[in-house]
Specification:
By secondary structure, this protein is of the alpha/beta class. The protein has 40 helices and 22 strands. Helix 2 crosses helix 14 and helix 11 packs across helix 12. It is globular and about 100 Å long.
Length: 896
């Protein structure tokens, strides 16, 4: 099955490939090669091998991994993070041991991809990754002290041993080497400020200057030395000389290499995916990384991973297809063959300067500042311990400690069971259309959210005992409990026995299928009795003494939720009495079951700079504003920042220039209270997914805050709903959904019923001004690029203009895009001049959907490729409309 994914991906990627696209790929390949050359030399040396090994790695990684990778933009090669691991391996086991560990790691990474475990690797918390990255940066910098000082000392397995050697034997620095390293560092810092620095990397310029100084002055400093004019190095892993006896001792180090390679590659893909809008296929990427790392040691190279620095250069240089990483490898090979003599004179001190600046830039400073500025204790703890373990201990131990810390933090957060107690209020029930006769005993409804397991279950008993007597009737709504263990089962049984012994009672409602199964196996449901288990809390209340008023209930079920209106907790699922028999509908599940509970928020007194930094850090478009007591006050979007903070353009993290963005608002005395939009359209946790879906459709919303009595408890988006339907849809049966009193066959609806026909289009030769005018004609801020026969060749968004246009920083374009997002009209539109065409600006790899496709077929395309809108084409491939996620939601509930 996986073998079929590569041809499909390549055909889609190279569809419509032409001379202009080839020119872009070639220029991007040259640019990336210029950036990669000094890094390859430096990381080869830093890995404990030599510069030639770094070059071989970059060449093979570019060609092999680039051809098989999970996205067209990934550039792989030797990296700083990997070199910090390899220097320890090479000093402990020699180059043969390092090569064997690389081969084993390649096998492990390949298996991760084959068994589709890419998501598992991505579950490591960000603070652990940031700490590990910072620790590796420190190791890289400290590991270059010898080259920086122009000295040679024995290899050491740890930083502590290295400094112990310095203290015991003393050192005599080479002043020339220090000056050369400082020259390279200064060049890398100052060069980017010049206009030419945007095209030629400072590291390459610095190395050239340092080499010229050595050649002209005949300086006595260590240099790289001879570079073989071949890709097959003399020192390499030979299949006939594999040290099999060392395999057992290399398993754990190989796991470290595999984990680091997989994590770094997938993180690079996630960042690049946000920059391009093209989602990385994690599993294909892992297979590519694994295959590449099995081949590279056989040529004498070192393990490779995808590199964020080189990948971002590829994207910013206009690279379109995977031909860029392949060409970058070819250009590096030519450099090795043609410039070997010159490269051999590069001083090692120059490479040390490159690595020290690279180590500084490796740190995710924005994340570190964010953790400490906002006093995020869990994040600070995980970051600090991982960093310390990385520097002081073996990197394998650091990874294990990081996982351990992550697990402990996760357990602590998971143990926070949320319990909300609501008495049954007759007045509110009557207002909602319920005729209710209050029983003689006290009745209380408990809403539980979170796993009911050993770390949290006892808290439920304590809460019940402190709020209700044994004579009360308790209704436990456990829709928000995703799992339960043996301790949780015992706690529910204990509460049941307590209430019945005290002449009270207990009822259960709204159970997840997994929870129901375990309670059934444990005999709890049998002990309760079938008359004590209900679909929803309102049914349980009705059974105790209420009668559902039909007309009022229908109004509650179908009326849209207006701004600031919260559905009453008892109205979890009020269904009309007469129903058409049907299979369980995923839209009948509660919002609480699929909402995201980890929601980043800001306080109303947060500064605009803090808010922008947080949005850039996480790549979000909106943030809830929450009071100290947890009550939701408002929402801040990037549109609010455009309107009220005068940002130049909407945030397009992570490609944004953070310094520029923060400088725009640094002197503005604006807080979250000034920026937020209020009141907010919300959805209660007890409402159904269908209600959330209808609310998003009616108000044109992408996401909804989930509240419980005004307190923010989660977040649900269109993607969450689409993912639920994608997981639940049956491909063998006719899919139906109930709409009111009728049952609609979803397969009878096609994209022709849902699409928007008035789609802005431009020809490939359209000018920048014509492209912007097309975007301004449609609030969706998208234009489809078509040829003269209306065949789709690309798509352009306002984000594409910001990322690809040479006028991205020009006031005229920025102002027009700003007004486009905020829907503000122009008094006089400034015309945009330039030679760029739509073909230069568009995203070429476009996924289309046939006009005869069903909503479910469109859903699979949108979820598989992670896209927001699908151009709809007829049987001849001509554009006839555009299908959005909102339109698709309508089709998935039977609306047209």
């Amino acid at each position: 099955m996986m073998l079929q994914e590569w041809p499909r991906m390549w055909r889609r990627e190279f569809a419509g490939y032409n001379r202009d696209t080839l020119q872009k790929d070639v220029l991007a390949g040259i640019t990336v090669a210029a950036v990669a050359l000094p890094l390859a030399l430096a990381f080869g040396v830093a890995s404990g091998a030599d510069a030639a090994a770094g070059l071989v790695t970059a060449v093979l990684a570019g060609i092999v991994i680039g051809a098989l990778g999970g996205a067209p933009y990934q550039i792989s090669g030797p990296t700083g993070a990997m070199s910090a691991v390899l220097i320890v391996l090479s000093s402990r086991y020699g180059l043969e041991g390092m090569w064997l560990a690389a081969l084993l790691a390649g096998i492990m990474i390949t298996l991760l991809g084959v068994f589709r475990l890419g998501r598992v690797v991505a579950l490591i918390p960000a603070p652990v990754i940031v700490g590990f990255t910072s620790g590796i940066a420190i190791l890289i910098a400290l590991g270059q002290i010898d080259n920086f000082l122009g000295i040679k000392t024995p290899a050491a397995e740890s930083v502590i041993e290295k400094f112990r050697y310095y203290a015991e034997h003393g050192i005599t620095p080479n002043p020339q080497a220090i000056l050369l390293a400082l020259l390279v560092m200064a060049t890398m810092i100052i060069w980017p400020r010049f206009k030419l620095g945007q095209r030629i990397p400072g590291s390459l310029v610095g190395i050239i200057l340092a080499t010229l100084v050595v050649v002209v002055t005949h300086g006595d400093v260590p240099v790289i030395g001879s570079i073989p004019r071949t890709i097959l190095l003399e020192n390499r892993l030979s299949p006939t000389q594999i040290p099999w006896a060392e395999i057992s001792s290399l398993i754990v180090p190989a796991m470290s290499v595999a984990a680091l390679g997989a994590i770094e590659s997938l993180l690079c893909g996630a960042v690049a995916g946000n920059m391009t809008g093209i989602r990385l296929n994690n599993n294909l990427e892992l297979v590519a990384q694994g295959v590449g790392n099995m081949i590279i040691p056989l040529f004498g190279g070192v393990p490779a991973t995808a590199a964020i620095a080189r990948t971002s250069v590829n994207i910013k240089s206009g690279g379109v297809t995977r031909l860029v990483p392949i060409l970058h490898g070819v250009f590096l090979l030519l450099a090795a063959l043609l410039l070997a003599g010159i490269i051999g004179h590069v001083p090692l001190a120059a490479l040390a300067g490159v690595l020290m600046v690279t180590a500084w830039r490796m740190n995710e400073w924005h994340s570190i500042h964010f953790y400490f500025d906002h006093h995020l204790k869990h994040a600070i703890l995980a970051f600090s311990i991982t960093l310390l373990a990385t520097v002081v201990l073996d990197l394998t131990q650091a990874i294990l400690i990081g996982f351990g810390i992550s697990t402990l933090i996760f357990m602590a957060q998971m143990s926070e069971l949320q319990i909300s107690r609501k008495p049954v209020e007759v007045e509110r029930l009557e207002t909602a259309g319920l005729e209710y006769t209050h029983p003689e005993r006290d009745v209380a409804v408990y809403y539980l959210s979170g796993p009911l397991f050993f770390a949290a279950a006892r808290r439920l008993v304590e809460f019940v005992e402190s709020h209700d007597a044994p004579s009360a009737v308790l209704i436990l709504s456990i829709r928000g409990v995703p799992l339960i263990d043996a301790t949780g089962v015992e706690v529910i049984r204990e509460i049941l026995h307590r209430q019945r012994k005290g002449s009270g009672d207990m009822l259960l409602t709204s159970m997840d299928d997994r929870v129901r199964l375990l309670l059934e196996r444990a005999g709890v449901l049998a002990e309760l009795g079938p008359d004590h288990v209900f679909w929803s809390a309102d049914k349980a209340i009705a059974a105790l003494g209420g009668t559902v008023g039909r007309e009022a209930v229908t109004a509650v079920a179908e009326a849209p939720i207006m701004e600031g209106l919260l559905l009453a907790p008892f109205a979890e699922k009020m269904e009309p009495g007469s129903r058409v028999p049907r299979t369980p509908d995923p839209l009948d599940r509660s919002v609480q079951e699929i909402m995201r509970t980890e929601v980043l928020t800001v306080s109303p007194d947060a500064s605009a700079a803090e808010i922008v930094a947080l949005l850039l850090q996480k790549g979000y478009r909106s943030l809830p504003v929450v009071a100290e007591n947890g009550r939701l006050l408002g929402i801040i979007t990037d549109g609010d920042l455009l309107r009220r903070a005068d940002l130049s353009t909407r945030l397009t993290s992570p490609s944004d220039d953070w310094v520029q963005r923060l400088a725009e608002i640094a002197d503005k005395a604006i807080t979250g209270a000034n920026l937020m939009t209020a009141p907010v359209i919300t959805i209660p946790a007890s409402a159904s997914v269908r209600q959330a879906m209808e609310l998003m459709i009616s108000h044109g919303l992408k996401r909804l805050p989930v509240v419980n009595d005004g307190w923010l408890v989660g977040w649900i988006s269109r993607v969450d709903v689409l993912r639920l339907l994608d997981q639940q849809q049956s491909r063998d049966e006719s899919l139906t959904y109930e709409t009111g009193a009728a049952v609609t066959d979803r397969s009878a609806i096609t994209t022709a019923n849902l699409m928007v026909q008035d789609v802005p289009t431009v020809l490939p030769q359209a000018t920048l001004e014509e492209v912007v005018q097309a975007l301004e004609r449609d609030r969706r801020r998208r234009a489809v690029v078509v040829d003269t026969d209306r065949q789709v060749v690309g798509i352009i968004t306002d984000g594409d203009l910001l990322q690809r246009s040479q006028q991205a920083a020009a006031p005229g374009l920025l102002e027009r895009l700003r007004r486009l997002v905020t829907n503000q009209p122009f008094a006089v539109e400034p015309l945009l001049a330039g030679t760029e065409t739509a073909a230069d600006l568009m995203t070429a790899a476009v996924i289309t959907v046939p006009v005869t496709a069903t909503p479910d077929e469109a859903l699979r395309l949108i979820m598989q490729h992670g896209i927001k809108r699908l151009p709809v084409v007829d049987e001849d491939g001509r554009l006839v409309g555009l299908l959005s996620r909102t339109s698709l939601l309508r089709g998935l509930i039977g609306e047209t």
